[in-house]
From TrEMBL, chains A, B:
PANTHER family: HTH-TYPE TRANSCRIPTIONAL REPRESSOR YETL, TRANSCRIPTIONAL REGULATOR, MARR FAMILY
Gene3D superfamilies in alphabetical order: Winged helix-like DNA-binding domain superfamily/Winged helix DNA-binding domain (1.10.10.10)
Protein name from the UniProt record: MarR family transcriptional regulator
UniProt cross-references to Pfam families, sorted A to Z: MarR_2
InterPro entries: HTH_MarR-typ, MarR/SlyA-like, WH-like_DNA-bd_sf, WH_DNA-bd_sf
Chain ranges of the HTH marR-type domain: 1-115
Amino acid sequence: MLELTASQALGLWHSVSLQQVRLDGRDLSLRQLAILLEIYLVPPPHTVRGLAARLGVTKPVITRALDTMGELGLVTRERDERDRRNVVIKRTINGALYLEKLGDLIIAQGRALTP
Amino acid sequence: MLELTASQALGLWHSVSLQQVRLDGRDLSLRQLAILLEIYLVPPPHTVRGLAARLGVTKPVITRALDTMGELGLVTRERDERDRRNVVIKRTINGALYLEKLGDLIIAQGRALTP
DNA sequence: CCGCATCGATACGATAGCGTAACGAAATTG
DNA sequence: CAATTTCGTTACGCTATCGTATCGATGCGG
């Protein structure tokens, strides 16, 4: 439970977006970031189909995002041995670190807010 | 000044990103959103050059983003009559409404946080 | 004036993402 | 087992954005 004023809310988004653009060359899209956060903040297992439904997008969108973020080392894929049609998305150290930095950035910018 | 825990920070970003992807078809990139917030939250005047420096990106990035967001009615451009080399970026009703909705979304998701 | 700097826009080739449709592999069903 | 469903991926054509380089227009300084 977190009470925010309109000024605080947009101010926070502003400063964090700004720093994210300036500091992080990876330039993840909003969709990619949403997928990444979903994978790391919601209990597994995560599948392509499940993520697609959750975000309200088509499956190729998820596949592509996983391709890209996989190359960046932010996630991994493994076949589900119990049902080999499925692919289970796994977290990585790199991904956890990436989100930890994002969290630190949000906290820092929240602290620096002058409402 | 806003005190956030790591869980709150990422949880907030998660839920807002998720809703933004689900509800807003416009799908602004992080760069575009950062530009938009800069225009609306920082006192004018705003120029292409200034925004480029502020975000740490090249000028064509700003021009393209303004093209796109202009078509969406989120910003407008006007030549600066005092120095006709400059272009001054103006806010629009539509843009203000868009950010107001975003603010509402952030506030609502902050309120719904279960830390 | 006339060079020179500055501004935003444009051209260019390359890359990434999109939605729709179809595919192969694997599981389920009757 | 054959037929069907389910799952993730790939193919396709299209659009948007990227970075670099350059452009035309405008202002400025000697």
